[in-house]
Amino acid sequence: MIGMADYARHWLRREALPIGHPNWMTLNRVWVREVEDARPGFSEQLRNTALASLATDDETLVRNAIAILAIVGTAEDVPTLKEITEDSGAQLHSDARTAIYEIEHRSSEQFR
What we know:
single chain; 112 residues; mainly alpha; 74% helix
């Protein structure tokens, strides 16, 4: 059986939809929940995998990772995403800003 870390890497590379893809937020959220229901702990592993993937040179993988962080990221991830907004091209900058917004919006709703 494939380990959780390997499954998260595979999932991020093959299933995640980048920001801007039609219905990216809804589909990614549903898919993550479905996997989390079957494999508890998947969301946290996927978050860790996404964070690690931000350091790669594969722009598609980085875009997928940013989109996933918009779904499962925490306030702790915002500084890392802000670095991307300062050190990257227009598309990654825009994706990172969207992820930051989603994380901050989700975080503020949790305390209402």
